[in-house]
Amino acid sequence: MQWILSLYITMFPVILAGVFNMLLLKIPFLKSRCKPIDGGKNWTDGKRIFGDSKSVLGFWLMTLLGGFMELFWGLLLQGLGETKRSLLYLYFENAPGFNFLIGMLFGFLYMLFELPNSFIKRRLSVSASEQGDRRRGLKLIFFVLDQIDSMLGIMLCLGILVHLTPVQTVLAIFLGGFTHVLVNCLLILFRVRKYL
Fold it and tell me: Which residues constitute the signal peptide according to the record (predicted)?
């Protein structure tokens, strides 16, 4: 149980960065500047590469927010005398430079690992809002993938950095996915998000 609490304490800045990324991209000024990563281009099958929901601004905003949130979180934990509650600080010094860089890395991985899922969904014509339409098998598969894709890269990286066992890494990915669902439910409740 203590390990799970430490995992959440370690990952809280990424969760915050994800929420703030979504909120900031809803501001009309920023929303109007969201250019898709794929430049609106199609793949050889005639379908979009990633779609409109994956934007250059969203990608880099999440990367920067990850850095700033990790920086803030490290300072807060230090101020509260709880530095050792984060798995990262069992192996690395709680230093502003490290925090900003590791936060940016986590933010970057969060966005990067969403792209393969988006690419596959475009190939199979799976709608982001309808999650597979009437194709129940696809609906379930992509629902699970949507929850864990961004966590996959982060947890693999964290696992290497803090020497997680393979079992702990898999558990961390699924805990991340479960948390993703809970956070999305809250965002739907507050009308920030329309669907899971």
Answer: none
What does the pLDDT average to over 153-179?
92
Residue 78 lies in a domain: yes
pTM value > 0.85: yes
Which residue range is the domain that position 170 belongs to? Answer: 2-189
Within-domain flag for 194:
no
Task: Please count the structural domains in the chain.
Answer: 1
Q: Is residue 58 part of a domain?
A: yes
CA distance 36 to 40: 6
* Mean pLDDT, the chain, integer: 90
Where do we find the tokens 């948390």?
A: 179
Cα atoms in the 13 Å half-sphere on the side-chain side of 46: 0
The structure tokens listed for 103 are: 């936060």
pLDDT digits (tens, 9 = 90+) for 97-106: 999 999 999 9
The DSSP bridge partners found for residue 55 are 36
